[in-house]
Specification:
The protein has helices spanning 27-35, 90-102; strands at residues 6-11, 48-53, 65-69, 80-84, 114-115. By secondary structure, it is α+β, with helices and mostly antiparallel strands. The longest helix is centred in the C-terminal third of the chain and has 13 residues, at 90-102. It starts with 5 loop residues before the first strand and ends in a 5-residue tail after the last strand.
Amino acid sequence: MALPERDVLLCRDCCCGTTTKHPEVDHRTQRDEIEALDDPAGRRGPRVRVRVVDCLDECDRSNVVLVRDFTWNPGGRRPKDFWLGGVLSSASTAAVVDWVREGGPVPASLQRHLFRGKRG
């Protein structure tokens, strides 16, 4: 199996994804929509691997999604990391899903969600 073109890490189980911190957000639907991107064989488009992780250590920016794009440097396999915070609406979730599927530059609708992660 070929390596993915994009890894999507969805932060959960700390404060991201909890009704305690964000009771107005449908966290289950958000997780389902992002997990539906998982297609490491590339049957529906780019090869995408989705991983749900316990904590990305960016709790002040919850809900956090980290997109690692390996197409930026295909020879070296060093990804370009895109940290997205405050992904709390169905519109922002849909924008992440569409962008990961389509590739290309970060769309204008997600620009305000970008930040430099502690690990990036």
